Amino acid sequence: MHAMDMLRSIAAISWLLLCGYTRAAPLAERQIPSGVPQYILDYAPYVWLEPEEQFFPSDISAQLVNTRPAVDGEAVEGAPSPLTLENLDQLNGVGEVWLTANNDWTAGPTWTRGAQPNMDGKTEGAMSAAVIIHENDNNTVDAFYFYFYAYNQGNEVLGQELGTHLGDWEHSMVRFVDGQPESAWLSAHASGGAFTYSALEKLQGRAVIYSAKGSHANYATSGSHDHTIPGLPLEAGLLNDFTGKGTLWDPVQSAYFYTVSFPEDADETDSSVPTFTSFDGSPTAWLYFTGHWGDDTLPEDDPRQADLFGSKKFTGGPTGPRDKKLNRGEVCPEGAVPVCDVRGFLPPGS
Questions:
Q1: Residue ranges of the domains in the chain?
Q2: Which residue stretches belong to region Disordered (predicted)?
Q3: DSSP for 38-88?
């Protein structure tokens, strides 16, 4: 190669890296279970992780290795040992269970850092996502793409970090009609946003969403996002998420795949009656677990705890996918927003 051509090639590669480019593995290279509808993969969202992200997608089962079940701060007697994705549901019925860290989790130990996706967008050695498919009536299918992070780092308000917790479940949902993507829901804290699928940014024909630094809330655009009042973004607020093109993650490359069904008379608010079925024999017991995927809120007298206007620095971990209203009438989960406005455009801060 001529010296000048080599310099041009190096410059081009450098430019792509600076722009956050990463190649994504074609569908043929993904180890997807047989029977998963092709359109679920063809339109599965990519996720841009923020450039300064420190807490990456995490292996779901690793959370059980690094925690122990507790109720009211006391270890659960007779709990399965070891605790696995195959027996996690055995903790149901013993009280409000919190998967409590085996060591001090508040400083973000190594095991909470997750697995940074490689150049193909895959979290090597970490099953960090789950795809749950629900068939509705009228040829409508909702595909839930769940994203797991071992650690949620809260936002800063007046110099004080608030809302940090162990364990973090986020999701996007794509509604398909006759196999075509019609609309999508992006979870963000206790709320989120709904968009037509066509309005979302695309990469290789697939929607692109942005995961906020630390909190991992999902947004449709890069930049700053106020979430002081859930469901009502302001131009300037106290609580702000930040998104950008850092590392590109392709969650379906390291995901479990399931279907979920409900009795005919079940409504959206009834989370006690789902039936989960795996496409390839992957564990399902963990999906029935009703407890929390992290520690309880630290008590006020704990020296690590802090308070600002009644909001805590270290809060309790979330419950899992079964509580994310998988049996929806509208694209938006009930109670998440005042009105389910499915936007056909991307306003600033969305």
A1: 37-343
A2: 308-329
A3: HHHHHTPPEEEEPTT--S-B--TTHHHHTEEEEETTEEPTT--SS--TTTG
